[in-house]
Amino acid sequence: MRIFITGASGWIGSVAVDELLADGHQVAGLARSDTSAAALAAKGVDVLRGDLDDLGIIRSGAAAADAVIHLANKHDFGPASNSAERAAVQTIGDELTGSNRPFLIASGINAVPGRVSTEADLSPLHGPDAPRGGAENLALSFQDKGVHPIAVRFAPTVHGAGDHGLIPMLVTHARTAGFVPYIGDGSNRWPAVHRTDASRLVALAITKAPAGAILHATAEEGIPTRNIAEAIARGLDLPASSVTPDEAITTLGWLGGFFAMDLPTSSTATKELLGWTPTGPTLLEDLATASYFHD
Predict the structure, then answer these.
(1) 73-82 confidence digits (pLDDT tens)
(2) What are residue 153's DSSP bridge partners?
(3) Are 108 and 154 in contact (CB under 8 A)?
(4) Does the domain made of 160-192+221-264+280-287 have the CATH classification 1.25.40?
(5) Between 3.40.50.300, 3.30.1700.10, 3.40.50.720, 3.30.2130.10, what CATH number should domain 2-154 receive?
(6) Would you call 17 helix, strand, or coil by DSSP?
(7) Each residue of 49-65: b (16+ CB within 10 Å) or e?
């Protein structure tokens, strides 16, 4: 297939591109910068220059593709990011309407109070003012319009050497504070997945997942945040200390509220459906290496 992918040079997308090429697909990728464009071109990817605001470029990429993978996001968690995400999904969905072509969208996991969340739990996020612009539900709604949508919910921590996501943010805040905080007794849980496993799931899903599928890219259902904090503390040679939710916000900013959430998430149905078997290192194994602690 010819597959158009946004976020093709990103943390997950760059490895997903490698997986897709290894599987024999032709890949076209959206690239914002000269550096990203050159890296994609060196792999044999057809480059489309633009970003999430270039809806004409996104539409043309989708029009020329047999399938679309949408991984790009502005990652500022604000109204502009939500608006851009929704507009891109709307544009791709409109272009694919009536074609039955696969359209995979990256999404986030949802907390379900009191239990482990599963793929059967529907996203509560609807409408343009919701986080990520309610893009998961918008994408899935295109199934009624002759599109083959697939939602992949990624763990908040997609880890590996070179990670620049939430765990490195925790490391940076800890260096400033002089200790590594966890909230309360630290029993609240974060799911995680290695970058290579997440990327392989994307490549499997675009060819194997049925229309309307909701998939969970979580290799580990939930790691107690105290264990995460203590692993970071060992890497930085700092203490790990319990804080209150208010103190977490003071120390970690907005990340403090997120680190306080309990997010256990199952991927059992995803593994059974796609034959996906994560093989990468665990988060704590990665945190036992030096890669997260370089200045």
Answers:
(1) 876 666 777 8
(2) 107, 216
(3) yes
(4) no
(5) 3.40.50.720
(6) helix
(7) ebbbebbebbebbbeeb
